[in-house]
Design a protein that fits this description.
Blueprint: E1 8-11, E2 17-21, E3 28-32, E4 42-48, E5 54-60, E6 71-77, E7 84-92, E8 96-101, E9 112-118, E10 126-137, E11 140-145, H1 154-160
Parallel strand pairs: 1-5
Antiparallel strand pairs: 2-3, 4-5, 6-7, 6-9, 7-8, 8-11, 9-10, 10-11
Length: 165
């Protein structure tokens, strides 16, 4: 039995994540949107939930979009999964990070990664952070910091570049 709903607005957040929630079963799905090129501000699409619910939504691009940061770094998995490589940071804020890996790897949501990257500040500061992967789409990943405290060089960098959320 298919159910139909009114069109729902979904905003892409600062880490390029779109969050869908089924109104019937409350099942949540996160989509990583970094790899998609948007030609319009609003994009209409339909989706189907495994519970049988079918609906349409409007994906709304952020209006305060900053250009990609392009900071270089490396990542390594902290458990037995053999995932490591180079990355390019696309988005960064006080809560998390969105980045692109150099090659596509089998990194699943929930995996803990250790990141090391260089800021584009005057000192070329090296930052080491631990993150938990939220969502992946091919080479693109979004992750949240395991610690909300940024007492290293990342804190002042986020403050002066107005990246605190």
């Amino acid at each position: 039995m298919e159910k139909k709903m009114l069109e729902k607005k979904i905003r892409i957040d600062r880490l390029d994540i779109a969050k869908l929630t089924c109104p019937d079963c409350k099942r949540k799905k996160m989509l990583q949107m970094s790899g998609h090129k948007f030609t319009r501000k609003h994009i209409r699409f339909t989706y189907r939930c495994p519970c049988g619910y079918s609906g349409s939504a409007v994906l709304e691009k952020r209006s305060d979009t900053h250009p990609d940061m392009g900071l270089a770094g490396t990542f390594i998995c902290s458990d037995t999964t053999r995932a490591s490589g180079r990355m390019t940071i696309k988005r960064l804020n006080s809560q998390g990070i969105a980045f692109k890996t150099n090659i596509e790897q089998k990194i699943k949501p929930g995996l803990i990664l250790n990141l090391e990257f260089v800021l584009d500040d005057a000192k070329q500061s090296i930052v080491k952070k631990t993150v938990k992967v939220l969502v992946r789409n091919g080479k693109y990943l979004s992750a949240k910091f395991t610690s909300g405290e940024h007492y290293d060089n990342l804190g002042p960098y986020l403050f002066f570049n107005k990246l605190y959320v």
